[in-house]
Amino acid sequence: MRITDELKGAGTIAVGGHVRPDGDCVGSVMGLYLYLKKEMPGARIDVYLEQPPEIFDCISGIKDIKSEFNNKTVYDVFLALDTTPDRLGGAEAIYDRARKKINIDHHISNTGYGDVSVVEPGRSSTAELLYELMDPAALDEEIAKAIYIGIIHDTGVLRYSNTSPRTLEIVAELIKFGFDFSKIVEETFYEKTYLQTQIMGRAVLESMRLLDDRCIVSVVSRRMMEFYQVQPKDLDGIVNQLQSVKGVDCAIFMYETGTLEYKVSMRSNGRVDVSKVAVRFGGGGHVRAAGCTMNGTYHDNINNLCLAITEQFNEAQE
Ligand code: 5GP
Ligand code: MN
Hints:
By secondary structure, the protein is an alpha/beta fold.
């Protein structure tokens, strides 16, 4: 399938992604936006997304993103990327009103939504899948850069096991456009502010190991976030840091989002399917990276998560 085949005759098109957008979400949404502006010059293309982290300001057109969702526009087509409709946040109502709904995703927990659904869990990233739906001859440096950012963010810079030979072939094609990929990797993936580094240090220092040291857990309270003057987006990367501890099969990081409410991120080396654990608590994701929101004290949440993880450990042993 080519994406433009599904958009024939459309005069108004909206593109959106999930709440708290990450690199794959922002890269995919912006890559598609730039592509459609070029390929469908007669159509109006709008992007709806929560304000992305500033590290993505290097993506062309990023300031065109609309983060106000209270309009009544009825679009001919809404393309939801890297998400299920329930995680579109404020854009969900715009999606619901659209005449045609297209879903493009790589999350194993996405069972398919809308009029056209392309969900391929074998893909490293939504950005990689999107590349396959585009005409390679229509790409340019700015589109390639956005897709590249999506791929490297969901593969930990081509390091995680979701990286396939096809992923690398696509990346090879993308970097031929000549953007400074080394600078992009450094500035969007590795570089942290001093405060981000400090709170990561604090979270690692205060972590604890459970389940015979196979599981590592850390929690950041709202008070700690206020002390360090950080936002949720400043906590990206902490769970990966925890997962890199030798002997750990599963890392859990949670931060407080409200009274007795925590956002949970989980990572695994494949011995536990954390998407199953997340789905159990109303979330989703992939085998090795998943998340959910949980209510209750963090002690209760850790207990409940550990019970579900223990079941997974036992299942894997059988
Ligand atoms: P992260 O821990 O980096 O926020 O998310 C890891 C993966 O799990 C991502 O693919 C993300 O989309 C997914 N994920 C995280 N939180 C949730 C959630 O609350 N619901 C669902 N369905 N997926 C989530
Ligand atoms: Mn993704």
